[in-house]
């Protein structure tokens, strides 16, 4: 489990909105989260479309995190199996 903890501690996950105006980056454990907006983003979107862009970026980041977590779990489990 130490390997799994280490793999999660060093992870960096990035998700971008469909139009690339919003970028969400999460790093490490405990997570540090950064939200970056493209120049002019607030003028380009209404409140509702801006919300959709943020939600889209978060969904992409969460999918990337789940994929990373699955790979980390498989790697940690594989190493544990080698030692049993």
TrEMBL record:
Organism: Rugosimonospora africana
Protein name in UniProt: YbaB/EbfC DNA-binding family protein
């Amino acid at each position: 489990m130490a390997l799994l903890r280490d793999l999660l501690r060093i992870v960096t996950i990035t998700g971008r909105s469909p139009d690339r105006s919003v970028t969400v980056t999460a790093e490490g454990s405990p997570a540090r989260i950064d939200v970056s907006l493209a120049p002019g983003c607030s003028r380009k979107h209404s409140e509702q479309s801006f919300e959709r862009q943020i939600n889209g970026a978060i969904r992409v980041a969460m999918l990337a995190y789940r994929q990373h977590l699955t790979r980390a779990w498989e790697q940690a489990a594989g190493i544990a199996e080698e030692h049993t």
